[in-house]
User: Fold these one by one.
Assistant:
Number 1:
Amino acid sequence: MLRAFLVRHYPTPLRHMPRRVHWHEIGDWYRCLSQQGWIAPAWPEAHGGMGLPAAKLIAWHEEFEAYGVARAPDQGILMVGPVLMRFGSAEQQQRFLPKILSGENIWCQGYSEPNAGSDLASLRAEALLEGEHFIVSGQKTWTTLAQDATHIFLLVRTDKAAKPQAGISFLLCDLNSPGISVRPIRDLAGHCEFCEVFFDKVRVPHANLVGQVNQGWTIAKALLGFERLHLGSPKQSQHALGHLKALGQQLDLMDDSAFRTRYAELALDVANLTALYTQYADYVKRGEPLPPSVSMLKIWATETYQRIGLAIVRNAGSLGALSGATATGDGQQHLLAALYNGSAAKIYGGSNEVQRNILARTVLELPS
Ligand SMILES: Cc1cc2nc3c(=O)[nH]c(=O)nc-3n(C[C@H](O)[C@H](O)[C@H](O)COP(=O)(O)OP(=O)(O)OC[C@H]3O[C@@H](n4cnc5c(N)ncnc54)[C@H](O)[C@@H]3O)c2cc1C
């Protein structure tokens, strides 16, 4: 049923996009899923979701990935919604959840700052309580698709004297509030997928505080959950491997022993990744929490993806230096896309170095 729906309704030009898509491109599809009642497969039915159990949810995501469905700006569905269901008040749930489902509100994530990424607890954007409002000043950065968003959820410092983790609160903020400016950042690939967001004495109603003041760190950590498995999905690598093979055929490299050896090595890397992913997906299917060793999956998934990206660029010869859609023999490819996307994937969702630290500490029990 889902496959037929995708064929019927998903815009063909947006299949297997080599970059994140913007709201003006994907908004119609978002609303189409919303009208069908399928925009929030993981949300409970009581809140307007589909309430899919874990195994069906994984199958759902796999179908979307296999069809090459682009990721819409989905932080509302994946992040804010689940946070509000767990930590938000009934009033906040009523005010925000329906507008996430309908696509009326589009959310972005304001965690990282220029000096607080891996070490997120050192964040400095501050919120001072003044009557019924917090006054927020500071800067967020790498905020994915903030230029498309109507709202931002952010971590702010509400107690400078407390230990770093203990003085952080979680706020919801309308991006139209006076004092906010959003400046897109052009990335290596030439796209503007993330932004800097500046706050200059922005008034945020106290009613937009989620949970208790200074308890934001607990909420921030709770967001990780299912995303860790999602980041380890083999679909991107499988897709890139398909591109490498097509390139080999288009450029007559299939009889070249160096190409074939590299292709075989990478195909085995992808097979290993798929096997590892299946193992972790089984935890979720059984309803068990993911063990800390899932960090290995994120590392292997993103580094395999990047290795394939590099092989595409190397084997494309001088064409490998060209960005955008490039004619390759009788075909056409975005030759740099996998390399760029793989490089970014090694950083977001907790950099691979940080994942290695987790493995060292919690799995290998090495001294810190
Ligand atoms: C494509 C993309 C989208 C993003 N979207 C968002 C978003 O929507 N919202 C948001 O809030 N953030 C977002 N981020 C930011 C992302 O979460 C951070 O980039 C990431 O947490 C790393 O932080 P940093 O960039 O400050 O690097 P740093 O933390 O400064 O790290 C620099 C380097 O040092 C290494 N390093 C740091 N600490 C250690 C350590 N203890 N041990 C070993 N090595 C270490 C890192 O691995 C990295 O290689 C996005 C990033 C990217 C690339």
Number 2:
Amino acid sequence: MSAEPETSNIDETPFIDETRDAKSRYGRFNLAVIGGTGVGKSSLVNAVFGHDLAKVGKGLPLTHGVQYFSDDSLGIWDVEGFEIGSTVPPAEQLRGYLQEIAKRPNNEQISVVWYCVKSNDDRLTKADIAMIDELSRAGLPVILVLTKVDWSRNPITGQRGVSKSVEEFVNWLENPVDGHGQPMSIGYERVILTSTSDKHGKGKGHGLGELVAETLSLSPKNEQDAFRIAQRLNLPWKRELARPVIAAATAAAAGAATVPLPIADAVTLAPIQLGMMARIAVIYDIEMKTALSTSSLANLGAQLAGRALASSLIKLIPGAGSVVNAGVAAALTGATGEGWLRLCEHVHTGKIKLDEMNEAWNQYVPGFLDVLRKMAEQRVGK
Ligand SMILES: Nc1nc2c(ncn2[C@@H]2O[C@H](COP(=O)(O)OP(=O)(O)OP(=O)(O)O)[C@@H](O)[C@H]2O)c(=O)[nH]1
Ligand SMILES: [Mg+2]
């Protein structure tokens, strides 16, 4: 890309600063995934968080069978190692693990537990119950996740159903009784049936939407945004986080142009817009460092201020004249934010590859009509 005249005036540091700031503000959500080997823990994590943290994250083997993987918004405690036949019962082994985890830094502390059991096991073992109660006593909210559920469709009603034995297992889990038929209580909050594929290893899975909804509702308030960012199944949650960021930047841009800016000075809007874009990229969990080089970031800023603010364009905007007033600044920033949000969504959902982002942005830069539309919205909003 050839350098545009404004490039030298654009500083990418607001983008980098805002990225760092947003990451630390949103923080990290920590999930413990507990279950025997092969029950489908890693598959679940991949289906919900979209990448194999075990491969890309920083792994920390705490002790035999317990590993911690993390990136900015997500930490996973992967717990599978219970030494069968050891003289120490699993619940006690687990207590030891929890004690070790408690010594770790604040941003690694478990918020929610997925206790995973294969749906075709027909019962919880005594050891399972003891472990779940151990977790619950430690104050951790536990979701009992039944994995590898084999749903089938009733050919007549078209409804999805599970086998009789899974249904019985779920009924028991919802109202557990002991060997004498006496009701008992086990320390999980909810039972959720899931699959990450069908029995042929295909399909997109089921029950995962419910799993993320329940996980969010059991998360502490201050980790909910991190969870919304880390998960990849619910796009509206991300939009809900991004919209206020655009609104704030729009207001800031209007404020910066209270005294109308000569077009040549309109690059003063770039830091506001770059900051906004950084925050949105964090919400969509897009690692901009790999998407855009520093020089292309600066170019991006130049495009924001340059292309959309081309003076020929501004002159066409009624009432704008040769300066950028508050209304134009707000409309430009709002339209830029919307364009960027769409691009980030498309990268997030895989429609656009990360390394194509730089070129793709051209198609998302707001045009004249977008800006006019935003201005009309503002008038209606007043
Ligand atoms: N049919 C079916 N197979 C699944 C499902 N989820 C996982 N599997 C398969 O089960 C096997 C084990 O899955 P993993 O996700 O690796 O299980 P894990 O609990 O992480 O296993 P370990 O890390 O070895 O303890 C893999 O071959 C998966 O493809 C599912 O929902 N349905
Ligand atoms: Mg695994």
